[in-house]
Amino acid sequence: METAPPLADLLRRRRFRRLPTAWTSTARPGRAIWLIGGWAVPGLVVGGLATGLQAVRTTDGEVAWNWPTPKWAELSAMSDQVVDGVAVAVLVKEGSDRERTTAVGIEVGTGKELWSYRLTVDDPYSNTPYRWSGPAARAPALVPGRAVLQTGRWAVTLDLRTGTPLQPPWADPDSTSFEVVASGSDVLQVAHTEREITVRRLDLERGGVLAETPVPFGGKVESARVVHGAPLVLAVTGAGVHAPEDALFLFGSEGEVPTQLPLRGKKFEFHLTDSGLLEQELPMVRAGDLLLVPTRPSYGSDLHVTALDHRDGTVRWHWKSDGELLGLLPAGDSVLALHSYVPTPQEPGSSHVPGTPTRVTLLDLGTGKVRAKRRYGYYSPTGISYLDGTRLIRLSRYGGGTSAVELR
Prior knowledge:
Blueprint: H1 7-12, E1 21-25, E2 35-41, E3 44-49, E4 52-57, E5 63-68, E6 74-78, E7 86-93, E8 100-107, E9 112-120, E10 130-131, E11 134-135, E12 141-143, E13 146-151, E14 154-159, E15 170-171, E16 177-183, E17 186-192, E18 197-202, E19 209-214, E20 221-228, E21 233-238, E22 247-250, E23 259-262, E24 268-270, E25 285-287, E26 290-297, E27 304-309, E28 315-319, E29 325-331, E30 334-340, E31 358-364, E32 370-377, E33 383-388, E34 391-396, E35 402-406
Antiparallel strand pairs: 1-35, 2-3, 3-4, 4-5, 6-7, 7-8, 8-9, 10-11, 12-13, 13-14, 14-15, 16-17, 17-18, 18-19, 20-21, 21-22, 22-23, 24-26, 25-26, 26-27, 27-28, 29-30, 30-31, 31-32, 33-34, 34-35
């Protein structure tokens, strides 16, 4: 989605006030209430619940299309990307000895099902992250023309338009865990054993590996988690009392040996999504040559924003939110931060606030200085946010609702 150029001017030239609501939609596909993920294309936002997908128009909040899941399955994961108008949803059937995983290609603009592919594996629960109610396949990795589906130790490369497998399903039996992730036009495999972490660039046409990069952690590995795809960023935690310090690894655009940063520094620690939260809800965000990362200061509990140079991890600026950070959205030469705000007892009317106030703050991308701020409401709207022109659209994490406010 594109942000209208005058957004900064619209917010800056008016007084500090509450953002007007454009529309609210409470419709949802079926009875499920927990959000699995979301997609956005110009004019539409799509929310996924266990019982199906639903698209609403960004102009008026009316339902554009519904795609209910089959009776035998529930929606388990959604691709983070929409590529050439196509996204992929993953369905699972549980309660049997062999978990049945099916990938479905969806044309996001129309809701049309383009194809489905069933992948059945013998070790369905091995190294599979949990989302809310049970085991689920990982989000598929999408690049132009290709989709890589992963469940457990198994993965398969599919044609994005037809769902045709390009090679037989393949596994990595030697790794403790592995994950595939889209990084620009490449798909990378991040695999680790107890002692090693390796990043492999996959050959999606002929199969196999084009290049390998070892990650210099230097000790026993408990987990190696992808927190950003392009550029690739890994969060690595050590195992055992003599393990190295937990670290963040920033890879270069050519996959060169990464920059290493401590996850917990002297002044702040990186606050990164774990497997118990929506991975799209509060991600690390790339904006220009910066990586915008939620951080928590060592002296308090509020979530802040730290801007890092994506090439070497240098801190460019730091912004204090005075509350919980709920979303980050690049907007041209600015970044929009959605955050809760806890008023001090000295502020007028602070004792009469019926909930935690939420604000939208526009920050200068180059300096981190505040350009403008607005009131969002008196609650914390957890979920996934998108920008469509001068509208901020929010998919609710719980309840299946969608709402939009005007940024003016």
